[in-house]
Amino acid sequence: MRFLILAAQGDTGATRVHAALQARHGPDAVVLASGEALALAPLWAHRLKPTGAMDTDLRLADGTRLPSSDIAVVLNRLRFVALPHWAAARPVDRDYATMEMHALLLSWLASLPCPVLNPPSARGLAGAERPLAEWLLLAGEAGLPARAYHGTTKPAGQGVFLEPVAPVPPCRVLVAGDAVVGNALALLPPDGAERCRRLAQRSGCPLLECLFAPAASGGSTTDWRFCGANLLPDLADTAALSAVVALLEERAARGTAG
């Protein structure tokens, strides 16, 4: 059984997880594949079995075989489809091919019997792509202090108001299943970790980085605001990387989707 990491070329967060898993489980236990590698794979066999379950046999150009039954867990950081071999095609043909490949990847990821982190959505291959307003709403529903957001289409005040925050690098909290790590935890209410977990659950993203920044006029811990979310954290922090690796190992050992 293998760990499968799906990511765009040059994704440093995926590279870090790949290296960490290889060090712990050996090079043959981990596969890192880009969107281009999936698009250029010489074999895709995606079938509906009589039982109603899906079965997929995939062979990459380097000879790596990835049948559904051989994948223990997927770290999914693939947000879009790349088709380099269609670059010279007419835009209408290239767009059609891209949509077909997107549909294949979406069906494949959704049909895998193993856990997929983050699971695909109709709004994105690696989880729902949400506008900032929706993330702020979800954060507020989860109990996190969030930036105020107000929009109106009335002629007298048409536009959007977004509460200003101080121009400093945001502090971060990474949710990885039940684990919550990051330098923003000390700035949140005592139950801030549980509120971040709640946001991850509401968003359907077991791996979620939450960003926080102080209100422009604030100074105390109560003045810190949720200001955004990231589905693809760089995992440069050792604690964050360890939390992701531990979650992948735990889900692989569990052996069922979810």
Write the layout of secondary structure elements.
Blueprint: E1 2-7, H1 12-25, E2 30-33, H2 35-39, E3 43-48, E4 54-59, E5 71-77, H3 91-111, E6 116-117, H4 132-141, E7 149-152, E8 159-162, E9 171-176, E10 179-181, H5 192-203, E11 207-214, E12 224-230, H6 238-254
Helix pairs in contact: 1-6, 4-5
The percent range for strand residues is 15-25%
Helix-strand makeup class: alpha/beta
Indicate the CATH architecture of the largest domain: 3-Layer(aba) Sandwich
Topology-level CATH name of the largest domain: Rossmann fold
- Uncertain segments are none
Cα shape: globular
Strand line-up across the major sheet: 2-1-5-6
Can you give the helix content as a percent range?
Answer: 25-40%
How far the N terminus sits from the C terminus, by CA atoms, comes to 17 Å
Radius of gyration, Cα only, in angstroms? 20 Å
| Number of structurally distinct domains | 2
CATH class of the largest domain: Alpha Beta
| Strand and helix order | EHEHEEEHEHEEEEHEEH
Total strand count, please? Answer: 12
Q: Strand count, sense and closure of the main sheet?
A: 4 strands, parallel
Give the helix tally.
6
Chain-averaged pLDDT: 90
Characterization of this structure:
- By secondary structure, this protein is of the alpha/beta class.
- It folds into two domains: 2-127, 3-Layer(aba) Sandwich (Rossmann fold); 132-230, D-amino Acid Aminotransferase, Chain A, domain 1 (2-Layer Sandwich), CATH 3.30.470.
- It is built from six helices and twelve strands.
- Helix 1 crosses helix 6 and helix 4 (132-141) crosses helix 5 (192-203).
- The two termini are 17 Å apart.
